[in-house]
Design a protein that fits this description.
Helices cover about 75% and strands about 0% of the residues. With about 100 residues, it is mainly α. It folds into 2 domains: about 40 residues; about 45 residues. The protein starts with a helix and ends with a helix.
Length: about 100
Amino acid sequence: MPNAAGASARIRAGSRPGRLNAGRPAFYSLRVFVYMYMREPETESPPVRHGLLVRGGLLVAGVMTIVLGMLPNWPVPVLDAAKTAAQAIATLGGAAFR
């Protein structure tokens, strides 16, 4: 019968690097937080101005999020048509490379 205490010690010793590595992402995440919120900016930059395409894309994405949330079964025919079109394009593209 194997020694249970020895196996337990080996398991604990093997988990030490994992516990040490778990602290690394926390360090980097906190570092980003500190740079974003707890330090003064190095230079004053003007606010970013977004164009009409960005605003339009955000509007379409927002409206579609609300529509899909309220009517989840509505786009099934549209998605099926998109899937069929994508498969047709993949089939044609695959034939072109043979």
